[in-house]
Amino acid sequence: MTKIFIYGIDGAPPELIFDRWKADLPNISALIENGIHARMESTIPPATNIAWNSMLSGQDASKIGVFAYTYKDNDGNTRLVSSNNIKTELIWDILGDKKRTISLFVPLSFPVRPINGMMVSGFLTPDIDSDCAYPKELKEKIKKLGSTDNFFDVTQGLAGHKSLDIDTLLKRTYEMSDMQTTLMKDLITSEDWDLFITVLIGTDRLQHMLWQHFDQTHRRFIKDSKHKDALKDYYIYLDKKLGEILNLLDDDTIIIVASDHGMARQEGKININNWLMQEGYLKLNKDIKEKTRFKFELIDKSSRAWATGAYHARIFVNKDLEDWQITLEEIENKLKLIPDDKGQQLNTKVFRKEDIYDDPDAEGCPDLTVYFDDLSWASNPDLGQEGLYSWETAVGADSAGHSRQGCFIIAGPGIKKGKLGVIDIRQIAPTLLRLLDQEIPKTIKHKPIEVT
């Protein structure tokens, strides 16, 4: 009977996995050589909490019901998203009582809920005393592994990794990964399962903060940094852990290594709400003089448009405007003319919601999604910084941002060998269902990948 094990490496770029560091990753390389690999087009936008849930549902952000890490509630207040915001069925819902699933650390799985199997929530989990494990007895296993302060993420709080010095970040990342992979190996051998899914967030945290230490093309490259090999060393560590896991799996297990998006150097940040204020579209209801995270509560009711979103920008146009459509088109055209800090034209891509989403009328759906210079420049929605350009947000700086393509590797009994072109992240869920001999719901529009 076929089983599937998914080793999720958050943000792993195909450029590193398939090319630059392939020779240093023997276990990943063996899977590549003995199976199928492909670049995987991520979601729009390529955000962690959206992309993993798209992979496990076959749906886009509008069907998932989540477009960001925060949303505006019915009272106009800014709230942190959770699993309660997800509106679509995920793979374990579709499988139901037919197949048993173990899900570890999948983003946006907090709070957990009962499934046919076991679940431990991901990096937005507040603490071990919350609804982070199903069944609850799993908490006792977690507590025995070490400090729970950095079990779910390197530090508590959204984007808290940006406030850590590099040595502390590395130490906490390895501690977190050791605990997570230990739990993983325990459950692989001690529990019955048909589908095992795990997502390791450490790569994302290190890539955001370490890119300028090893990428000589980075405009803020740190020459002779003592951390120049730190990211590569962590990938070697993850590959070694994968090897230990492969030794525990049955011969009938199909192995998938995948990432939700890639990563690329970041040239800088466009202070998008500063631009909207400068152009006369946005007005705040209070004077902001210090670095402040953007909140919906700060928008004056007379505003014509506002923006959220880190790495990419999400633009919302006031629907009460009589000239709503004209304003939308005006902003869209102006965005494409924003230059970099040296006056050079950017290759900016602007997506209208009706062109990229199955349900453009979904609550919280942005009117425009913007990739400044195709994501090599990030968007900074935060307030209190002067001018159009900055190198950090209100929570700190990073040197890399999310890129459009992740990686996909599959190997095991019955799987063909070879290299595919670019696949879509929404093809993974129907592929899993087909491999497990389960019916694919009609709500999933994308076809499975031909892997057998």
List the helices and strands and how they pair.
Layout: E1 3-9, H1 14-20, H2 26-34, E2 36-41, H3 48-55, H4 61-64, E3 70-72, E4 78-80, H5 91-95, E5 101-106, E6 117-121, E7 133-134, H6 138-143, H7 166-190, E8 195-200, H8 202-214, H9 230-246, E9 253-258, E10 262-265, E11 268-271, H10 272-278, E12 305-308, E13 313-317, H11 324-335, E14 349-352, H12 353-356, E15 368-371, E16 377-380, E17 389-390, E18 392-393, E19 396-397, E20 400-403, E21 405-411, E22 418-419, E23 423-424, H13 428-435
Parallel strand pairs: 1-8, 1-9, 2-22, 2-23, 5-6, 5-8, 11-16
Antiparallel strand pairs: 2-21, 3-4, 6-7, 9-21, 10-20, 11-17, 12-13, 13-15, 14-15, 18-19
Task: Describe the protein.
28% of the residues lie in helices and 21% in strands. The protein has 452 residues and is α/β, with parallel strands linked by helices. It folds into two domains: 3-264 and 403-435, 3-Layer(aba) Sandwich (Alkaline Phosphatase, subunit A); 268-397, Gyrase A, domain 2 (2-Layer Sandwich). A hairpin with a 5-residue loop joins strand 3 (70-72) and strand 4 (78-80). Helix 7 (166-190) packs parallel to helix 9. The protein is globular, with a radius of gyration of 22 Å. The protein starts with a strand and ends in a 17-residue tail after the last helix.
